[in-house]
Design goal:
about 45% helix, Rossmann fold, disordered C terminus, 11 helices, two-stranded antiparallel sheet, Putative enzyme, HAD_hydro_SerB1, HAD_sf, about 290 residues, single chain, 6-stranded parallel beta sheet, transmembrane, alpha/beta, EC 3.1.-.-
Length: about 290
Amino acid sequence: MLAGEASAEAARKSAQSAEGTAPDTGTEPDFPVHGDDRAAAFFDLDNTVMQGAAIFHFGRGLYKRKFFETRDLARFAWQQAYFRLAGLEDPEHMQDARDSALSIVKGHRVSELKTIGEEIYDEYMAERIWPGTRALAQAHLDAGQKVWLVTAAPVEIAQVIARRLGLTGALGTVAESVGGVYTGKLVGEPLHGPAKAEAVKALAAAEALDLSRCAAYSDSHNDIPMLSLVGHPYAINPDSKLRKHARELEWRLRDYRTGRKAAKVGIPAAAGVGAVAGGTAAAIALHRRRR
């Protein structure tokens, strides 16, 4: 619960001064419901909104800025390759990546990492946003609803991505800081699996949302607790376990990795199939160039 509450509080603070404005697309789908201010949308980040994992791209950006040694880049490249090839979140790999990131940022100022996060977004992340998922988020914004990222990635990075996409804010893993300096520890647990559901519940309570009218989007079976909270769950680029679960419960499916098309009920036409970028090749190529 502590991780969820910390993430929700960080997300709400970051969004207090932001107003979600979005261009009029000229269409108004049956869902989301226009003007329903007690509804919101919650999007997982890795492999749902963005191809690959944010923490790995962040690691590459820190290496470029000499935050750690060449030998560690190989681990980040391998983790990114594993994630892209497996198409799912392996808890051991994700935990290893988080531990690496915490040790790397320890002693650095929060403001420094936020500035670097902006640069890393432009360098590695912007081109890896799934156009289809981005269109789904835009549909909620156009309907006047708030849209939140919910991710195990560091909340500072998640907030950068959310802001750059024009979303309301982000729930993410909260790293402890004292006097604006990272201690190398977390506040609570990583925002993963059941912790995501707890964070969404905490935010929904604070925002007076009706979860039965909300939507959630994810690629991973690890997010079934979050998806099960809302009245409109969507499986996006699903792993095999989530695909099976979604079909059994008749959840909506959407896969932007191939030409397959799933149930379109309530999906805006603008959410077309996106192209797959070569994130794995880029990571390995960067490693080779640096050797």
